[in-house]
Amino acid sequence: MDKYTVPTILTIFGVTGDLAQKKIFPALIDLYTKNLLPEKFSIVGVARRDLSIGEFQRFVREAIEKKKHYKEDVMSSFIKRIKYSQGQFDDEQTYLKTKKLFEEIDNEW
To answer: What is the pLDDT of residue 3?
Structure first.
């Protein structure tokens, strides 16, 4: 099994912060467009903000578009791989909820 066939979930804590917006998301979509990410790849963002998945995906899209524009089909395909888990970092329930999200993604694969 090579690195491109290993299912991967990248988890970003504090995902609504500047680092994710300005550096991480633009870098990830660049890797995605160059086919340098695994076929089964998902991103789970964890933060305190109370956002729906749709709101979070728009947030990510806007952050990427501040840096560079991509064709709509590429952007949509990338954005579909993004999930969100809201919670406080010092609350055990945040991690249990995030674990459940990992299991849902794994079951989809």
So the answer is: 60
**Mean pLDDT within 97-103:** 95
The answer for 35, left when phi > 0, alpha when psi is -120 to 50, beta otherwise, is left
Intra-chain end-to-end CA distance of the chain, in Å: 16
Among 33, 32, 40, which residue's Cα sits nearest to residue 9? 40
Helices (H) and strands (E) in the chain, counts: 5, 3
Per the CB < 8 A criterion, the answer to whether 14 and 47 are in contact is yes
Q: In what order do the strands lie in the sheet with 41-47?
A: 8-13, 41-47, 82-86
pTM: 0.86
